[in-house]
User: Fold this.
Amino acid sequence: MIRRNIQDSVRRAMADTPVVLLNGARQTGKTTLAQELATAPGVRYFTLDDAATLALAAGDPSGFIRNLTGPVVIDEIQKAPDLFPAIKLAVDKERRPGHFLLTGSANVMMLPRLSESLAGRMEIIPLFPFSAGELTGLREGFVNRLFDGTLAKAKPIPANDDLPARMVRGGYPEAVRRADDDRRGAWFASYISTILQRDVRDLARVDGLYALPNLLKLLAARTSGLLNVADVSRDAGLPHTTLTRYLALLETVFLVHRLPAWSPNLGKRLVKASKLHLLDTGLACHLIGTDARRLTGDRSLLGRMLETFVVGELRKQLSWADPRTALCHFRTAAGSEVDVLLEKADGRVAGVEVKASATVRTSDFAALQELRDQLGKKFMAGVVLYTGDSLVPFGDKLWLVPLPALWSE
Assistant:
């Protein structure tokens, strides 16, 4: 079994926190990881995907929780939101570390009633699809190197497959296991149908969300672009208010996410729109009907997918390296742009620019240089990731870095 790099973080949380929620998209391995972490004697496991268990939990939440002793794992907790107040009462009565390990396929941070129920009692840990490092048996150190000055020591790991194939495959465990493109495509189709037909409707509590499949395809075609709600509303044929609600639902079930704009006081006009990314490049490629051959031949499409891939890998690494580090993008009205900025709680910043090319020009560093000069000591590193092979310093705190360094130790 592939070891998850978040595993140690979950164990640390269970050692001092009463409730730990492993939160992420369906089919990212939450159940497998939860069961592995809860192998101690006396642990009880329940899944709310089971209709009988769900009926018991939803029918009498207080009684269901009150009758549980010892450490408990509850899978797909979002299906019975009334369990949260009952869990709160149980924790307040007997506050012990690792009392409940929960998993959820809906983002409770976007469901206030759930997240507020266990404020101060619960730690939320995200679980994403497999990272590139996990697939090669490594715990990536790229994010740490950005801030500790050791980029020069990074040892890129040669990829066992070409980059377009890696992005088309994605990181969902089941998709990774399927070597046949058609069988992988069938899995993606079933996966999307399950989430849109069941999970989203359960959250929305209404039928009639027929525009969601088409909307998801439109968003996949716009991955890594600025989110212009008016344009998407027009192309999808949806009223603005409906689109806003649908976007929130798709974010809640972890199909899409927004990369907010970074807005420091740099004395210039900044573009404040978020960028939109699909959670997984394999999912995005399936939605727009592209394969590795088309990615290879379409440089523009390859560039957008590569940016989404890098953003996804950085999010995964931050989940275990430093969850408090913010991920955002930077763009001025004049056109100066950095694809990804990482900002620590103390204000230190690192920038990453993504190039789907083995050739990089001096102008590709211009925005990073501008940012470095304005931020001064707070700017720790600026990196241009590219498809070439050499790791080269490019002036003070600036580096040209091969893409595989992203998943090196």
Q: What stands out?
A: The radius of gyration is 22 Å.
